[in-house]
Design goal:
Blueprint lengths: L1 E5 H12 L13 E7 L2 E7 L3 E7 L2 E4 L1 E6 H8 L6 E7 L4 E5 L4 E7 L14 E6 H9 L16 E7 L2 E7 L3 E8 L6 E6 H16 L4 E6 L3 E8 L2 E8 L20 E6 H15 L5 E7 L2 E5 L9 E5 L1 E3 L4 E5 H10 L4 E6 L6 E5 L5 E5 L6
Antiparallel strand pairs: 1-5, 1-7, 2-3, 2-6, 3-4, 4-17, 6-9, 7-8, 8-9, 10-15, 11-12, 11-14, 12-13, 13-26, 15-16, 16-17, 18-22, 18-24, 19-20, 19-23, 20-21, 24-25, 25-26
Helix pairs in contact: 1-2, 3-4, 5-6
Family: Belongs to the beta sliding clamp family.
GO cellular component, one term: cytoplasm
Keywords: Cytoplasm, DNA replication, DNA-binding, DNA-directed DNA polymerase, Nucleotidyltransferase, Transferase
Amino acid sequence: MKIVIETAKLLEVIDLWLRFVSKNATLPILQNFYFKANIDGLLLRATDMEKYIEIEIPCKIIMEGAITVNARMFSDIIKTIEEKEVEISVDQKSQVMTLKSAKDNFDINGIAASEYVALPEVPNENTLSVETQLFAEGVSKVEYAVTEKNFSPVLTGVLLKAKQDNLIFVGTDSFRLSEFKAPSGKENDFALIVPKVTMTDIQKISEYAMSNQAENLTIKYSENLIAFQVQVKDMKILATSLLIQGNFPEYDREEIMPRNFNTKILVDKGLCEKAIRKIGILTRDINNYIQIETNQNSIIISSGKTDKGAGTTNIPAIIDGPSVSFWINGKYITDFIKIIKGDELTFNVIDNQKPLILMDKDDASYRYVVRPLINS
């Protein structure tokens, strides 16, 4: 194998590529990048056996061939090369990759490409096209509510579903739930649970595509697999992932995601975040729970009595409905505030025991459900 490739092309995709390399592999080859040069260009692969990536990059092919080399080492070396182009060659007998530029010469010991794992076939049963901007936004608005470690495997993933001409993203850890809904074309209804880490990786790919004016992402799926394809300039990126099997909680019920409320509280998000962080100095060691209480044209945010002391602060608010008081995890609120684009948020409250819904005042497509702390 012998090729000459623009260094910038590798640098553009190297961090995306690395995201798919196994971090705790029992098989050393899973810590490697896969390279294959043929008449069509350079094919790059990586996998951790649950998610897979293939990147096709055009380059000058002098000799065809293939190899795998340690991903971190290759990445660290290529990031030091300052020349416009780099020559990559492989001695197929010794399985050594050589990187050459005008100033540099590196040898990396590799493992034969024939020992690399086979990648799954891309599902073709169902296909849809999604705007890269919409996909990246959808993931960002729900993934923070998902934990990668949970007693229930389905709660370690993001629910991606199509229903009534909407594409819906949902994430939950059972204490809070985030839902983003966006209009889509007429698609067949489906519901897939995609691992959180996969969705975060595809979000990064979508953001990279957006930065290069690639507007659409193609999604293909089957019962067990989901694949994401995007063309970015002259490069093709294909990422595939196993799906999580199981039934996602039926969250769209009144007792979980209520639609009728007694009190609505409108506050400035910046003032709210500052107030919660202020009180959080006293509550960060007790699960960040704070008390929010309405008081005429303001809300009072307090810590209650803690081992460290007690504190209260208040911020202006527009209150529609009877007075309410409830305890809630302050971090859950600040997580939401970081994501919303508008300047104001609404607390939609029934009472101090039922789930409440936080919303961006200017965005009806995004709902965030939080369970209050119920004192016995």
